[in-house]
DeoR family transcriptional regulator
Amino acid sequence: MPRPATVTRPPDRTEMTGVEARRSAIVAAVRQRGFVTIEALASQFAVTVQTIRRDLNELSAEGRLERYRGGGGLPSSVENIDYADRRITLSAEKTRIGRLAARHIPSHCSVFINIGTTPEAVARELMQHDDLSVITNNLNVAISLAEATEFRIVMAGGTVRNRDGAVLGQLTCDTLSQFRVDVAVIGTSGIDADGALLDYDIEEVRATQTILAQARRTFLVADHSKFTRRPMVQVGRLAQVDTFFTDRPPPPEIAALMQRHGVKLAVADAND
């Protein structure tokens, strides 16, 4: 006799409210103590360590705290998340952003692509374009496009940062400054409420500033977690961007600033 089908009951509103209340309390605990272990949080909220791990992963993906080995802590203003973690964090959202941005880049043009996992997502979506000239200081972008396309690719010289394939230094800036390019695709590690674009590494910032100065149009690509992160080095201003591609509407103060400076907003939804 066949076994009856198992019906999975979706969580009701009360359950979802309880999850969000716990996660908000976790964020409050981290802000108060700076760092809290998984075991301490599991004991505090009387749940399993697996539940806390899921909570921390979700909160990290939302940019509300940083997920570290063994617990959660405050987002750092001096050190970015490991590249391997950034590649998988909000990967679906980055793919949608990349697909939407790529649709706004025509074939037969020149493109700067800088460092970061979201610019890399744009590069992957450009592989179906024709006759692009790509200038980059991102080794991952150069290798992937060289393997999959016939594009003209210029790799900026400089020193390779082993952990993520970034190429940096004065030679990098000197190379980038030789080109005047149709579209620049740049990422950022944080966006402040006053429109400042922020990052962690001064050498990375100098390369991006060179790209900004040499592009006819600039596309900023960044997921919603960047709205809550506050690295300490300023790259530039949101007002320098032509179009901002993201996965959620920005906070009201950033939206108002964009409108004031004529910065276009493109939000990638689940259909992109």
In short: The chain has two domains: 18-74, 85-267. The chain has ten helices and 15 strands.
